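Human: Respectfully, please carefully check these tokens:
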Amino acid sequence: MKLLSVAIPCYNSEGYMRNCIESLLPGGDEVEIIIVDDGSTKDRTAEIADEYAAKYPGIVKAVHQENGGHGQAVNTGLKHATGLYFKVVDSDDWVDEDALHKILDVLRHMEEDGMELDMLIANYVYEKVGATHKKVIHYRNVLPQDEIFRWDDMGHFRLDQYILMHSVIYRTDMLKLIQLHLPKHTFYVDNLVAFIPLASVQSMYYLDVNLYRYFIGRADQSVNEKVMIGRIDQQIRVNKLMADAFHNCQFDSKHLKKYMLSYLDIITTVSSIMLVRAGTQEALDKKKEMLEYIREQ
């Protein structure tokens, strides 16, 4: 059985997907790379996916689907995952080889020792175009290192330190058990990946390595402010789904409840700022409706 399944959602990703795939190949036979072609039509994404699947048949799977958006591509990746653990790496991002090997070592030892781990956390790096200093998001001051821990063992998170999709690797069986399912045709679902499973997480492990390289700089990127304002309804949808998930949680840990509420607060602040920046009465009305919905939840 594979140790780690990695889903790579791809939509017209010809220009950068090779870099992402190549960064994962050093994991060898312990890694399953699931390239999900999300109905790409404008370039050679589908052909490149098939090319890697043919070249590395024991490692790479190419899955083609009608366009369903990032969330549906993650759903498809999870459906096809056979590894003990699961991670999403976006097609314009990549991973560090040394960090990948260290993480696989930890996961292998966990399996050999019969220790069930729900979530492994590692650092991520902002690979921002034109920036000479690369910002690393780490958790050294918050999380115990090199040991299994639980929610009440955590320290206090700074505002820029939250556990994002880039940081996490989940136990695959846990994600399938809770039936994690992301909405179609919706951006910003990475927040749901990092948020919804948390209430089911009991055991965690933090490895202080810079695994995920998060590329920032494309004009059409979903985190570009103008793009976010143009897709504000999708941001609101994700925000409300996070509020729903929080409302439905049965909290065993006050620490977890506080963390999730704070995370929800941050995303709601981002949504509110974007709605204000949109500068229209319609956007302000949407902001009011969204906040009323979240208060009710």
About this structure: Strands lie at 4-10, 31-38, 60-65, 85-88, 94-95, 119-128, 136-137, 148-149, 168-171, 204-216. The chain has ten helices and ten strands. The chain has a mean pLDDT of 95. The radius of gyration is 19 Å.
